[in-house]
Amino acid sequence: MESQFCAEYNELRIQVQQFATALLDHARTSYELEIMLNYDLDSEIWDPGETQTLERLKLALKCKQKAFVAHPNVQQLLATIWYEGLPGWRRMNIFGQTFELLRLGLMFPIYCLAYMLCPNSSIGVFMKNHFVKFIAHSASYMCFLLLLAAASQRVEIMTISFIGEQFQVRIRVFLKHTYHIRVNL
Fold first, then answer.
1. Contact (CB, 8 A) for 71 and 17
2. What does the domain layout of the chain look like in residue ranges?
3. How many beta carbons lie within 10 A of that of residue 177, not counting itself?
4. C-alpha span between 49 and 47 (Å, rounded)
5. How crowded is residue 132: how many other Cβ atoms within 10 Å of its Cβ?
6. What is the number of alpha carbons within 13 Å of residue 114 lying toward its C-beta?
């Protein structure tokens, strides 16, 4: 905003961004990196095992420090957080990852029921992982779209006409004899 010192301020801004990014290079362990990224002036010191708030990363995003956010150490930590529930996911080949996606996608109703009934069980804790939640939500949405498409195409009528009306008559006779229900033929 000040035209007199605009060049000096921009140079100082670039130096501060480079300093923050260079500070990430000095993190020797992922624990040190987690402490740096979770540091918050207003709250207590972050302890391992707590939910990661990533306050410094949020601040870097807000200040548009692309080099800080794109730093390999930060990206590795984000990938570790994202794939936390699936150890070895990144080392799997494409077929292993596809099989795992299909397994998670097809098992999502069972996982969701287990999570609703016992959220603190091993399956409930597994469902709290970010990537697993993403796969479950995606599979749920795909199931919804499939049911919506089936309802719009009147699949029940197409199924009955494909199977045949004789099958439908046999079902009605079976129900009539089994449950003594009056069925209009």
1. no
2. 1-82, 87-153, 154-185
3. 10
4. 6
5. 20
6. 15
What's the confidence (pLDDT) of residue 109?
92
Return phi, psi of residue 76, to 5°: -65, -40
pLDDT tens for each residue of 126-140: 888 889 999 999 999
The residue assigned the tokens 């918050």 is 40
Token pair listed for 92: 């799997």
C-alpha closest to that of 73 among 29, 18, 16: 29
Residues 65-82 have pLDDT tens digits of: 888 888 988 888 888 888
Q: How far is CA 143 from CA 103, 108, 159, in A?
A: 14, 10, 19
Residue 90 to residue 3: CA distance in whole angstroms: 49
- In the numeric block, the tokens 């409930």 are attached to 124
**How far apart are the C-alpha atoms of 21 and 71, rounded to whole Å?**
7
Q: From the CB of residue 168, how many other CB atoms can be counted at a distance below 10 Å?
A: 13
Q: What pTM was computed for the model?
A: 0.65
